[in-house]
Amino acid sequence: MEKSKILLVALGQGAGNIVDGLLGRNKNYNGLFFNSSLFDIKPLKNANIDKNVYLYPGTDGSGRDRNKSKEMIKDNANAIGTLLRKYPQTEVMVVFTSMAGGTGSGAIKTFIQIASAAIPTTKINVVAILPSLTEDQLSFKNTIECWNDINGVIDSISDIKFVDNNKRNTYKEINNEVIESLDLAYNLMGIHIDGNIDKKDSFRINTAEGSGIVLKLYDGLKDEKTAIDLAIKNSVFAQPDTYDCDYLGINLKIDGYDPNEVSKCFEVYKSTYITYNNDFNIVVLGGCDTPTESIKLVKMALDDKSKRKLSRSRDRGIIINIDENVGKENNPKIEELSEYNNDELEFSFD
Questions:
Q1: Which of these, 177, 203, 275, 335, has the minimum number of CB atoms within 10 Å of its CB?
Q2: Cα separations in angstroms, 230 against 7, 11, 215, 247
Q3: Other C-beta atoms within 10 Å of 315: how many?
Q4: What are the C-alpha distances in Å from 276 to residues 27, 65, 195?
Q5: How far apart are CA 140 and CA 131, in angstroms?
């Protein structure tokens, strides 16, 4: 794909960190940051408040409230559409959002509708960030609702990737891996005597309808199957149940793994593209099944949190008797608490 014709869109804080990293990695990308809080924008090196940032007027964060976010983006729909129309050359718009938050999670459905109307010729990809299973009940609830919103506009989405926050120890590690993997996927092109992947091929792979997967192969493993299995295990993207795909792109180091053996690990229904380079091993699958197992785990975590909340018993008021004779026959009874209504209450402080 031609990077100058890719528009990276960050909805909210979590998404902004990834888009900021991609812009830092390659200045040829175009980027836009949408947020409801200036505080979230300030740390980003490539977010220019006068150039590529849209702050919802009169707001100061969403407080992880998806309904508040929905109201904000609907109130700003015309202005957002006008801004997007300033990028008519965009061939691929990649929309990033954290599913567990508020600003991005609540806005994703409406934003895709606005983007589809503003630039009808563009392909819209989505990178949605799933929560860690150690997060709280609100995170899980927001994620399920966001999942349903995305599925409500799925016909307007080409490629969708789900980031699995359970795959690394910190958000920084996750973000760095996503940034590197996506940049390699968008840089899939290569020219070699034994095979080429041009911009159109890369475009076709990266915008295939369905779920997309990016796999980085480590050097020095005993065979291609072992390398693929390890890449799947270490991938920060949620994995499908099967690895059937419409398109397969393979770009490997020269004199390294055999791309034909790599391709045997997958069922490809349309086309496989192969080329070589000197620096990295990357495999990109386009048009896979949706990784439903990941969202089922979130739903199970939500159900578990909900059950534990229902079974919780909280004691707010506890009277402690400090009389040492408690338990003896002559122990005086504790005076019963009296109830008063508003008309009976009189206070005097002298």
A1: 335
A2: 31, 32, 9, 21
A3: 5
A4: 24, 47, 7
A5: 7
| Torsions phi, psi for 230 (to 5 deg) | -70, -40
Q: Kindly report the number of other CB atoms within 10 A of residue 299's CB atom.
A: 13
Tokens 């295939």 locate to: 208
Q: Per DSSP, what are the bridge partners of residue 275?
A: 251
DSSP character for 344? Answer: G
Single-letter amino acid, residue 1: M
* Cα–Cα separations (whole angstroms), residue 237 to 141, 168, 203: 21, 11, 20
Position 341 scores a pLDDT of: 58
DSSP per position, 123-192 = EEEEEEEEPPTTS-HHHHHHHHHHHHHHHHTGGG-SEEEEEETTSSSSHHHHHHHHHHHHHHHHT--B--
| 176 Cβ contact list (under 8 Å, min separation 6) | 21
Strands 282-288, 210-216: parallel, antiparallel or unpaired by DSSP? antiparallel
More confident residue, 280 or 344: 280
- CATH 3.40.50.1440 is held by the domain 3-157: yes
Beta bridge mates, 98: 129
The token pair at 129 is 């960030």
Share the mean pLDDT of the chain: 90
What's the pLDDT tens digit per position in 150-179?
999 999 999 999 999 999 999 999 999 999
Q: Which residue type sits at 225?
A: K
Mean pLDDT across 132-151: 94
CA–CA distance, 304 with 49 (Å, rounded to integer)? 42
Greatest CA separation found in the chain? 102
Domain coordinates of the chain in residue numbers?
Answer: 3-157
